[in-house]
Design brief:
Helices cover about 40% and strands about 15% of the residues. The protein contains 14 helices and 13 strands.
Length: about 400
């Protein structure tokens, strides 16, 4: 495993089975491989093809992960029940312990990079005393940036009530030699850990409160051979992402809103919604279960979005203004930041009338586009995947 600079760098990457967390890392991994680094990427079968396309080695985690076997109602608890999610985290870490620790002890990596939510990667690094880099595809999180999340009092109380239960689960990790203090020491960002953040200092809320251990590299966007040409008609892009997207009535309302319009409409509805189930689709609509989002955003004039961090970064990278329709608290924080910087407006509700008026407002008021282009300029000033690779290689040395 020879790096392009003559060093031997063996890197491990850990991620969760989510496109919004995986996609930003792919250009970084590709850059590392192109420099001659050996990269093993621990992820899930659904991501295998994308990961192997970078030139890295894919290692499946499916057999270790209890989340792969959850009932739908249990899966919904992960983001709301910290005790439940901690139990799953502990179960997975211990399931991976024998094989993973044995493999890394025999062939000790020079660096471990783990998604901020793939905390088992962080725990393994700490246990083996391997240099560690966190990969944060959401906003960096501290007590200042937490203000944009706007959690309700009941949500905060529920989390605080569950912390003692979560900490009891962590005793199982300490019994296996993992240096874990409490649940907050696992989930929070701190100013002593090296962290890559996939956004710009200008877009990150309260970026001035983070230490120089944080590197804001901007969105890590897949390069395209050529930029798609804008369509003759204004183009509306609609997507609720790949997770909380089963909203057939919402998609039908979007069709009703623009059935008689002069605009081109591209709508991604997710794998759980069959386009033919949405009724008659007008000729100026393109409706599919998935689209090449990077290509679409380069020609979109407005994006009606769930405000996932990855989708938002990609849209703003190309200067596309947003109509904001967040579905979770995290997405609400992203929407709040976009709106505060003037690059998007909130969708009042999902009625055809509100969808139409919201889209037209963003389309016809040029200040939304101008604000989006300003954020885009900040993104392009960042170092992207090359800067991330520089930081990882420096950590290896």
């Amino acid at each position: 495993m020879r790096s392009g600079r003559g060093n031997q760098n063996e890197n491990r990457i850990f991620c969760i089975p989510a496109y919004g967390h995986t996609n930003p890392t792919l250009e970084v991994v590709k850059e590392l491989v192109q420099r001659g680094n050996d990269v093993r990427y621990y992820s899930y079968a659904m991501m295998k093809e994308r990961i192997e396309a970078t030139g890295s080695e894919f290692i499946s985690c499916d057999q270790y992960d209890p989340q792969m076997y959850l009932k739908p109602e249990d899966a919904e608890r992960i983001s709301t029940d910290i005790a439940f999610s901690t139990e799953l985290l502990v179960n997975m870490t211990l399931a991976m312990d024998d094989g993973l620790i044995g493999e890394m002890t025999c062939w000790k990596p020079d660096c471990i990079v783990a998604d901020s939510m793939a905390v088992w990667g962080k725990l393994v690094a700490f246990k083996l005393n391997v240099p560690f880099m966190s990969s944060t595809t959401t906003f960096a999180f501290n007590r200042y940036s937490a203000k944009v999340m706007k959690q309700s009092a009941s949500q905060v109380f529920k989390m605080l009530f569950a912390i003692p239960k979560a900490n009891r689960q962590l005793r199982r990790l300490r019994d296996k030699g993992y240096p874990v203090k409490n649940i907050l020491s696992i989930i929070q960002n701190d100013n002593e850990t090296n962290i890559i953040v996939y956004t710009s200092p200008e877009f990150q809320p309260y970026s001035e409160t983070f230490s120089n251990k944080y590197t804001f590299i901007g969105p890590s966007i897949r390069e395209t051979a050529c930029r798609p040409e804008k369509l003759e008609r204004k183009t509306i892009y609609i997507s609720l992402g790949t997770v909380v997207n089963t909203r057939p009535n919402f998609y039908r309302n979007c069709i009703r809103a623009f059935a008689q319009s002069e605009y081109a409409v591209i709508m991604s509805v997710g794998v759980e919604t069959a386009p033919e189930s949405l009724g008659v689709i007008p000729d100026h609509f393109t409706v599919a279960q998935s689209v090449e989002q990077i290509d679409v955003l380069q020609k979109a004039d407005v994006f009606l979005t769930h405000c996932g961090m990855n989708s938002t970064n990609e849209a703003l990278y190309y200067g596309a203004p947003l109509l904001l329709f967040p579905q979770t608290a995290e997405q609400g924080g992203v929407a709040y930041r976009v709106n505060a910087l003037g690059a998007g407006a909130y969708l009042k509700d999902d009625s055809p009338e509100s969808i139409e008026s919201g889209i037209l407002d963003v389309l016809k008021n040029i200040f939304y586009r101008q604000a989006a282009e300003k954020i885009s300029e900040g993104f392009h000033r960042c170092g992207g995947s090359k800067l991330a690779a520089d930081k990882i290689e420096a950590l290896c040395r």
